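In response to the reviewer comment on reproducibility (Comment 2.3), we provide here a single inverse folding case reported in full, input and output, so that an independent group could reproduce the run without further information from us. The structure tokens appear first.
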């Protein structure tokens, strides 16, 4: 019991409130916050090597983004869900666990147009993918 109290007091001290100035309920809540933060850090480190940042470097909104294993006949589900990725915005595409594939095709949809990139991209070696529009009607897919 003393060890638990010491850990809670350390958590409270970390957020800058002296333990003597607050009640046990507040100390308990601070302990929960510290435990939740530690749990989130553990979850965040359990990401896939195929996770990547997708950036929209165009003047149009990306309405759908599909990332499917290379060579599939149909596209999988939209990784943006109900979201739209506005101009000059980015998002992280992640898998909750390591997928069975590393090579993927990518489809980027804009309002009224879509662009398929079916060359097969090894996402285990790519950390960022971004689209640009160097001229009207041309959308380039870039990666590193």
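Designed residues, in position order:
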């Amino acid at each position: 019991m003393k060890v638990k109290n010491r850990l809670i007091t350390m958590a409270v001290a970390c957020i800058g409130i002296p333990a003597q100035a607050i009640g046990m309920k507040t100390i308990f809540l601070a302990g929960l916050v510290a435990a939740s933060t530690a749990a989130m850090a553990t979850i965040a480190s359990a990401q896939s090597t195929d996770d990547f940042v997708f950036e929209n470097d165009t003047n149009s909104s990306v309405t759908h983004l599909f990332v499917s294993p290379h060579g599939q006949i149909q596209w999988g589900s939209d990784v943006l869900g109900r979201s739209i990725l506005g101009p000059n915005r980015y998002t992280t595409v992640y898998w909750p666990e390591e997928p069975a594939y590393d090579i993927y095709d990518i489809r980027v949809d804009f309002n009224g147009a879509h662009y398929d990139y079916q060359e097969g991209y090894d996402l285990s070696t790519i950390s960022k993918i971004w689209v640009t529009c160097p001229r009207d009607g041309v959308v380039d897919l870039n990666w590193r």
